[in-house]
Amino acid sequence: MKTLISAEAGRALNRRRVAGFFLTLVLTAAFARPVQGQYRRIKSFGFGESSAANPAARLIVASDGALYGTTTLGGTNNLGTVFTVNQDGSGFRALHSFSQTNADGANPGVGVIEGSDGALYGVTANGGANGAGTVFRINKDGGGYATIHSFSFALGDARLPEGDLIEAVDGALYGTTYAGGENAAGTVFKVGKTGGGYSIVHSFSYSGAVGASPQAGLLLGSDGLLYGTTYAGGSNGVGVAFSLKPDGSDYVVLHGFGASSSDGENPEAALLEGADGVLYGTTYAGGVLGLGTIFKVNKDGSGYAVIHNLRNDGGANPVAALVEGADGALYGTTSAGGALGFGAVFKINKNGNSYTVLRNLAGGPGDGKSPQSSVALGPGGVLFGSSHNGGLVDQGTIFRLNANGTGYTILLNFTATGGDGQNPQAALTLGRDGALWGTTAAGGPNGFGTAFRINQDGSDYQLLHSFLGVISSDGSQPQGALLQTADGFWYGATATGGNAGAGTIFQLRPDGSGYSIVVQFGHGNGSNPTGGLIQGTDGALYGTLPLGGDHGLGAVFRLDLSLGGLTIIHSFCGLLSSLIPICGRDGDLLDTPVVQGSDGALYGSTSYGGYWSAGSIFTIREDGSGYAIIHDFAEQFPIYYPQAGIVEGLDGTLYGGDLAGGTNQLGSVFKLHHDGSGYTVLHSFSGPDGSQVPRSVLYGQNGVLYGVATAGGAGSGTLFQLSSDGSNFALLRTFAADGADGAAPQAGLIQAADGTVFGVTSGGGEFGFGTIFAYHPQVATAPRILSLTPVAGRTIVRLVSAGGSTNLIQRANAVMGPWTTLTNLIVPSGGIADFTDPAPALPNSFYRAERTGP
């Protein structure tokens, strides 16, 4: 790049600088040839860290108000996860994917607890350094994960923990193992929160009446004792309820199950201490019908009684502990039975009266089945629970319901694949928090797409919302970019779903929580928004519809956020045929958003319609007036159509792309003025450099255009750049779809303040479901003459350029030359250098600079 400076042209502009000589800069339009930058894939969609499946453990409502739990499968290694999710079902995030490597555990079958230090603690029955299970720690933000103890198969050691941990008053963690210990019949163990102080507190035995093989965690009683159950052993071989001191002394069998034909058998759940000081629990089997019981017993072992016998129509085979509600009633789940045979959520008074089924789980894609965990109590008496199976892909759910049985809602459908989203088709948005926000058109725990947030370095991926689609009135298949409005809130659109199946507009709070639907399409207000939204200078939102409007051929709409009203400001009418217009020369089918120009008008493109039925570019004002087509595409056949949208550059010019125009009919990048004049094809694609520009180009820093082609290259598309005058076209990336690279980019690009360009591909990546990528340009810094200063009959030339670069400085007495070389100036690390020309700065003197070295 060269810069040109004259001593005459800016006489009136620099009047304050130097009396008698007034100087200014005149820049050439050429750009330095691009230099290859660094491409990096920062995320692969489709399996990854937000996939999870088959929860078997209770949830907890932690001190931050979020829900935390575990899944036995899913995650990056399909060995289970620790996850968090908000109480409204948003913000799902796998905090850790178990790997069974480097002493990590696998397949957690129980939940986590929140320690007094705010961290989460849990156990895995498998994995660890010895393959016998672990105790682990993790922070609520996902950091600080560590295996703090690995069990072993060594003689006498504990192994295979299957019950929840508790934290005792001494600050240590206590738990049980199903096997191991002195008699290979299970143990009670303790370990410090940093992993120190591990010891076996008690070893169970199959001989005698002491009980064996505990499957449940412990209860820390109000008297400081530990209480629990064993699945087997005892006088009748079907388990016991017991107590002992934290130091392991004073072990007492409170009750041996199976004492009569109607007694409970094989308890799998921990005990609950009620507000009345009595212990309450469940057995998996036994009872009058052999389908399990609900029982109570005093802490000294007296007063044992079965207060309810389970039966199929009311729920059967409970494996989870009871919880006590604010109303004093007991709440629980059954893994089987119920009216539909898939388990139930129930409520019962402590005296055994008023057993009520609050929810019969229905299984199938619309409901959970086989709950194996307790419910958790939320604010206002709301119950949160999980089912091990059922839901969209039969891999479990999270649900909520009110304590009276109303308000049952599936908050989350688990899936081992697609849990973090699939097939992103919309450009990312750079939030005010510096993170990237976006959507996927498919995948997510419910399979209907997601809204997500991720840091620019690829860390801290957060699932903000998983769309529910056909199983509710929620939207599905978001295909447009998210928009952050002036008040910080986020808005987006779904192409389908909603209560009419015609799409929605939704809102998220600035932190990504609080998902709500703002507009339901399909009620005479258009349908199927596939483009993104913009906020106009009037504060309203503007968007496009490919269908709907007065003629069913698409529309531009305005949404007044203050009043909540949606208005169609233009209905497209297209052509009845390629030659017979319905209502004049108009476009139809809008797949892309509008953009607001510097003149305040809105600009957009249609994929069809116009004079040749091949698409058009139009303008319209915010109030709907001033609609006009400023350009018709395809004045020769074969005809192909623009679907890349329009952007305005900093130079005030409109830029866009098409799928199959240009010299080779494989797509092109073009520009034109606001009035439609000056239409110019900047680049025609030929195949090896890409084909089919699916979304708008990016007018980047320094006037460089960036874009993607969805096909061509090696067959999976390309990433390219060119100058705004069409010169200096360069391929930045040829997508390979080789199992790691992305493929078929279909969305626009964004650029961060440091110049990094971010984009997505709808396919490719490690799992074949798309990627997020970053491209860091390395463009040579062009030299620029900042000033000419006459001093004592000489001219001081001040130059800015890249530190360490070599720059040629020349002078001429006319714009066209001839040019005289003055010096090759090396610029220091500060980027600014002065050169003294012994000639005076005459009015007809011109100077120029060109970078010649690195």
Description of the structure:
The chain is mostly beta strands and 854 residues long. Among the domains are: 2-32 and 787-851, no CATH class; 428-592, TolB, C-terminal domain (Neuraminidase, 6 Propeller). The strands form 22 sheets. It has a five-stranded antiparallel sheet, with no helix packed on it. Strands 14, 15, 16, 17 and 18 form a five-stranded antiparallel sheet that branches. It is elongated. The two termini are 13 Å apart.
Record the SSE blueprint.
Layout: E1 2-6, E2 24-27, E3 38-44, E4 60-61, E5 67-71, E6 81-85, E7 93-97, E8 105-106, E9 113-114, E10 120-124, E11 126-127, E12 134-138, E13 146-150, E14 158-161, E15 166-167, E16 173-180, E17 187-191, E18 199-203, E19 219-220, E20 226-229, E21 240-244, E22 252-256, E23 264-265, E24 272-273, E25 279-283, E26 285-286, E27 293-297, E28 305-309, E29 323-324, E30 330-334, E31 344-348, E32 356-360, E33 368-369, E34 376-377, E35 383-387, E36 389-390, E37 397-401, E38 409-413, E39 429-430, E40 436-440, E41 450-454, E42 462-466, E43 475-476, E44 483-484, E45 490-494, E46 496-497, E47 504-508, E48 516-520, E49 534-535, E50 541-545, E51 555-560, E52 565-571, E53 587-588, E54 595-596, E55 602-606, E56 608-609, E57 616-620, E58 628-632, E59 646-648, E60 654-658, E61 668-672, E62 680-684, E63 698-699, E64 704-709, E65 718-723, E66 730-734, E67 742-743, E68 750-751, E69 757-761, E70 763-764, E71 771-776, E72 784-791, E73 794-800, E74 806-812, E75 820-826, E76 832-837, E77 846-851
Antiparallel strand pairs: 1-2, 1-77, 3-71, 4-5, 5-6, 6-7, 8-11, 9-10, 10-12, 12-13, 14-16, 15-16, 16-17, 17-18, 19-20, 20-21, 21-22, 23-26, 24-25, 25-27, 27-28, 29-30, 30-31, 31-32, 33-36, 34-35, 35-37, 37-38, 39-40, 40-41, 41-42, 43-46, 44-45, 45-47, 47-48, 49-50, 50-51, 51-52, 53-56, 54-55, ...
